[in-house]
């Protein structure tokens, strides 16, 4: 039943074990400035300011690319992504990182082509050669209005769009993998036929266990890349309840 399934991944601390923004900050010597400005700027604007600083220091997009290529990716997670794609699942990412970081890391590890869509903060290189990051939601327009999500991105709105496309395309379920506070809003929108895979002891897992009755989807926690691979592939192979009922009714009628 893999062809009926959309697998939606968060990126930081889910596909990769760490945080792509923090990697650039730490590895490229921006920790001092980051700590100085952290309380004054929203995260998205702060990351753009960090890239401005790198540009002023003469660091190039190529330098940032090489830093990102050093991001490790668990071999079990690579295997899970490739297997889910080969089985016919549609794979997507919803992330509060940015497109340049995600594309660079996934392309380096050979799995960029497995994903049909990436919803994240857009990025571009301006005419001066500086990498820039923009918010996913235009902050100058009407706010998205979600109290659970940061101003620049509501992942729940993206899940709404995915659910609409799932319904239109005849797909039947979503498997959502995440770890952070921003993954709680989309989790609340999942239905009884869906699955959520929160990383154990991370914020999403704590939200779910704090108010479990608010969650309609079936919950399967994970900690390591090996657990993620095993659980995800098992869930992909799980036949939705309504399909079992339909199959049973067909058998009886025959």
TrEMBL record:
Superkingdom classification of source: Eukaryota
Coiled coil: none
List of residues binding substrate: 21, 96
Cofactor(s) demanded: Mg(2+)
Active site (UniProt): 10, 12
Transmembrane segments: none
Ligand binding (Mg(2+)): 10, 12, 179
Pfam families to which the protein is assigned, alphabetical: Put_Phosphatase
Keyword field: Hydrolase, Magnesium, Metal-binding
Gene Ontology molecular function terms on file: metal ion binding; phosphatase activity
Full protein name: Phosphatase
């Amino acid at each position: 039943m893999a062809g009926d399934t959309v697998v939606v991944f968060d990126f930081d601390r889910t596909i990769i074990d760490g945080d792509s923004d923090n990697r650039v900050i730490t590895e490229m010597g921006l920790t001092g400035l980051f700590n100085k400005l952290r309380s004054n700027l929203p995260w998205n604007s702060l990351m753009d300011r960090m890239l401005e600083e790198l540009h002023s220091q003469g660091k190039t997009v190529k330098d940032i690319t090489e830093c990102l290529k050093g991001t490790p990716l668990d071999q079990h997670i690579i295997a899970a992504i490739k297997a889910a794609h080969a089985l016919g699942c549609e794979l997507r990412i919803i992330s509060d990182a940015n497109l340049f970081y995600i594309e660079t890391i996934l392309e380096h590890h050979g799995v960029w082509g497995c994903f049909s869509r990436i919803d994240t903060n857009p990025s571009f290189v301006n005419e001066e050669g500086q990498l820039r990051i923009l918010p996913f939601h235009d902050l100058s327009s009407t706010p998205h209005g979600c109290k659970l999500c940061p101003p620049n991105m509501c992942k729940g709105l993206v899940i709404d769009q995915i659910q609409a496309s799932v319904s239109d395309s005849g797909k039947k379920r979503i498997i959502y993998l995440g770890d952070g506070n921003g993954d709680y809003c989309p989790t609340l929108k999942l239905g009884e036929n869906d699955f959520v895979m929160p990383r154990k002891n991370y914020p999403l897992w704590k939200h779910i266990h704090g108010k479990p009755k608010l969650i309609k989807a079936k919950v399967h926690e994970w900690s390591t890349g090996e657990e993620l691979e095993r659980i995800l592939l098992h869930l992909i192979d799980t036949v939705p309840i309504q399909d079992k009922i339909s199959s049973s009714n067909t058998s009886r009628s025959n």
